[in-house]
Amino acid sequence: MLCARRNERLRKENEALQREKEQLERKYERLRKENDHLRRQLEEAQRANKRQAAPFSRGKRKEHPKIPGRKPGAAYGQQYCKLPPQQVDEVICVPLPEQCSCGGHVVFDRIEFQYQQEIVRKTFWRRFDIAIGHCEGCQKRWQGRDPRQTSEALEAAQVQLGPDALALGVRMNKGLGMPHADVAAVLQDGFQLQVNRSTICRAVDRVARRGEATWHALRDAARRSRVNGIDETGWKVAAQLRWLWVAVSEQVTFCDILPGRGFPQAASLLGADYDGWLTHDGWKVYYKFLRAGHQSCLRHLLRRCEEMIPMASPAAARFPLQVQAVLQQALALRDRYQNREISLHGLWTATGRWEVKLDRVLAHPGRDAANRRFAKHLLHERPYLFTFLYCPGLEATNNVSERAIRALIGARKNWGGHRTPRGARAQAVLTSILQTAEQQGKKPFDVLVELLCARDKYKILDVVPPTSDRPEDPSPRPPPGFAVADNSMQSSAGLAAPA
Questions:
Q1: pLDDT of 441-478, one tens digit each?
Q2: CB under 8 Å to 342, separation ≥6 — which residues?
């Protein structure tokens, strides 16, 4: 009897241990699969970081992608074609062949026109016969100056490049991100213009020195602007880490390369007491502009949600999904107001509802560590997320400043930075002038030619907006009680704005 009871007890213990073993095996298999999945994602992310960014790289290819290009058929719309020129410089007659391939005689029927636009690969030499004289009274030396001259140097420096050739070289280097050697190769192959890369480098430096007065005036114009987008990125100068800063307003783009990423560098662009509106990516340094109103970039937050959702478990993904939904609804609310579907009062009322909903979401981030970090960041950014709804006309993202930096990222990939601070200064000056010219609809090439041919080395170009009273805030004004003296005080909506 005792043996039977002992055997029964041992059998039950054995069955319990067997069940526990099976549970542990299932748990081990689940964790092994999850570990393999995370390892593959980590390897893909590491490979993606080493890979050059491609405009059409989206990871997995679609099974049935659409055919690129214009769709066939008349239903697609009228096909665009270039208009024939009003003036033709050269006419070439193309006669018929005398015989057909079958041996028959070819008879003339009519003439059709075909136009071709071509570039002239030609250089020419220009000589200036400069008159030299002196004053009869004070014996001061004088010499003539033609508007097409880029310099008054003579003797050893009497052979020079013309303003169009120099402007094209500077445009390719600073506007298109081409290294000096590539610029020299294009001028040689395209125009038979023998130029050394050192010549291009000195020309860039000379143009930059002539543009410094305009560059300082652009900085003053940026400080007067009511709204600025601001951003920064890494840059190398003499193999040392520096930071490329950019401030973009409605009419002006101002760049500078500085040795730090702190508030002193940001204040050197806009001034420590800047009291306009700033759109940025949420870097803590920008909030030290205490008199400014702030809009944190929603695109950065949405991108972070998109990155977190695939990596999280179904339960943990609920938090970034809820944040994503609130931010997308806020952008949709902005679009409804711009389409005049709701009134200004309705816009502000709906904004308050979405703020309350976001607060409820942030109150329950769950136990996931990534969600808690994201919630902590959102709680810090919370007062500056919906400024664009309380002040219609303000951008919800810092896209303008990122677009200004994007062109310079290509240059950074080509040559990595600059060897000297002097070269970095030339980059900042010419980038500010060229991007401001494009921003205002002017031709950067013509701006460079004007800068090269200017008799006054300290001439300020017309890309600088005229000095006048700063325009009003983005219309309409925020609701009463919204504006405060500094960011330490906040309204009931949780927003801070310029006094």
A1: 898 888 888 888 877 778 888 888 887 644 444 444 44
A2: 333, 336, 350
237 contacts: CB under 8 Å, gap ≥ 6: 257, 417, 418, 419, 420, 421, 423, 424
Q: What is the pTM of this model?
A: 0.74
Cα distance between residue 17 and residue 21, in whole Å: 6
Q: 193: closest CA among 121, 143, 280?
A: 121
Residue (of 296, 358, 363, 306) closest to 327 by Cα position: 358
In contact, 447 and 463? CB cutoff 8 Å: yes
Question: Alpha-carbon distance 207 to 166, whole Å?
Answer: 9
Residue 452 lies in a domain: no
Using the Cα atoms of residue 337, residue 338, residue 344 and residue 349 in order, give the sign of their dihedral.
positive
Task: Work out how many domains the chain is built from and give that number.
Answer: 1
- From CA 467, how far away is CA 451, in angstroms rounded? 21
Give 441-444's long-range contacts (Cβ < 8 A, gap of 24+): 444/171, 444/175
Compute the distance between CA of residue 24 and CA of residue 27 in angstroms, rounded to an integer.
5
CB 199 within 8 A of CB 165: no
What are the pLDDT digits (tens) for 308-358? 888 888 888 899 999 999 999 999 999 999 999 989 998 999 999 999 999
Report if residue 355 sits inside a domain: yes
Residue 280's pLDDT is what? 92
Residue 255 forms part of a structural domain: no
Q: State residue 192 phi and psi, 5-degree precision.
A: 50, 40
Residue 432: inside a domain = no
Distance CA(111)–CA(494), nearest Å, equals 74
Q: Which two tokens stand for residue 142?
A: 């004088």
Q: Which whole-number Å values give the CA distances from 195 to 35, 125, 188, 199, 225, in the listed order?
A: 58, 14, 7, 6, 41
Sign of the CA dihedral running 160, 163, 168, 173: positive
Range of the domain at 374: 298-390
Structure tokens at 138: 């004070």
Q: Which helix (H) or strand (E) holds 166?
A: helix 163-170
Q: What is the DSSP letter of 1?
A: -
Q: C-alpha 278: how far from its chain's center?
A: 16
